[in-house]
């Protein structure tokens, strides 16, 4: 059964970050918050991500490609489950793998974007433009400023 998610114009775009590196999650959080998103949860593996996704029901998911398999699920398995359960939820793939075949698999599978680590603040301005198509309320706020010196916010981490 396909789930429809509608963005409430009175709140920020809610994001689940999935990455096994705490430092990458911190950078992603800062960059996402700087473009008007709210990070509602973080997971360090796909198994945790699946539980959090079903619990917090984020509007967007960022997903690292290379993470350890835990609980018999890896990044690709999580991506497929996510596409099946909630095909309307945008997924931003974050990876160190520049392989065009892997990128193509995720993009053809419905990913919103495939970004390479290390990324720059400009990368997130481009992502903001893509998200504004799906979440028009993002465009109603003042133009955000990217800051990498802001302390991390408190979000659920597993």
Major sheet characteristics = 5 strands, parallel
Numbering strands along the chain, what is their spatial order in the largest sheet? 2-1-3-4-5
Shape: globular
Give average pLDDT, whole number: 85
Question: CATH topology, which one?
Answer: Rossmann fold
H/E series, N to C? EHEHEHEHEH
What percentage of amino acids are in beta strands?
A: 15-25%
State the fourth-level CATH superfamily.
Response regulator
Quaternary assembly: single chain
- Strand tally is 5
Radius of gyration based on Cα positions: 14 Å
What class, by secondary structure content?
alpha/beta
Share of residues in helices: 25-40%
Measured between the Cα atoms of the first and last residue, the distance is 28 Å
CATH architecture assignment name: 3-Layer(aba) Sandwich
Number of domains: 1
Poorly predicted segments:
1-9, 142-154
The CATH class label is Alpha Beta
**SS field, number of helical segments:** 5
Pick out its properties.
158 residues, Rossmann fold, 5 strands, globular, disordered N terminus
Written description of the protein model:
It is a single chain. The protein has 158 residues and is of the alpha/beta class. It has 5 helices and 5 strands, in the order E-H-E-H-E-H-E-H-E-H. A 5-stranded parallel β-sheet has the order 2-1-3-4-5, sandwiched between helices. Strand 3 (60-64), helix 3 and strand 4 (91-95) form a beta-alpha-beta unit. Helix 2 (46-56) runs parallel beside helix 3. The radius of gyration is 14 Å and the shape is globular.
């Amino acid at each position: 059964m396909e789930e429809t998610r509608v963005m409430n114009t009175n709140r920020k775009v809610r994001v689940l970050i999935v990455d096994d590196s705490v430092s990458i999650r911190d950078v992603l959080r800062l960059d996402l918050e700087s473009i008007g998103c709210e990070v509602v949860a973080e997971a360090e593996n796909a198994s945790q991500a699946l539980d959090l996704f079903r619990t917090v029901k984020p509007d967007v998911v960022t997903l690292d490609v290379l993470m350890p398999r835990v609980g018999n699920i890896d990044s690709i398995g999580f991506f497929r489950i996510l596409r099946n359960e909630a095909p309307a939820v945008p997924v931003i793939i974050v990876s160190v793998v520049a392989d065009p075949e892997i990128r193509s698999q995720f993009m053809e599978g419905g990913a919103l974007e495939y970004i390479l680590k290390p990324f720059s603040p400009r990368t997130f301005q481009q992502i903001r433009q893509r998200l504004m198509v799906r979440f028009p309320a993002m465009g109603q706020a003042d133009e955000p400023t990217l800051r990498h010196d802001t302390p991390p916010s408190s979000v659920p981490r597993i």
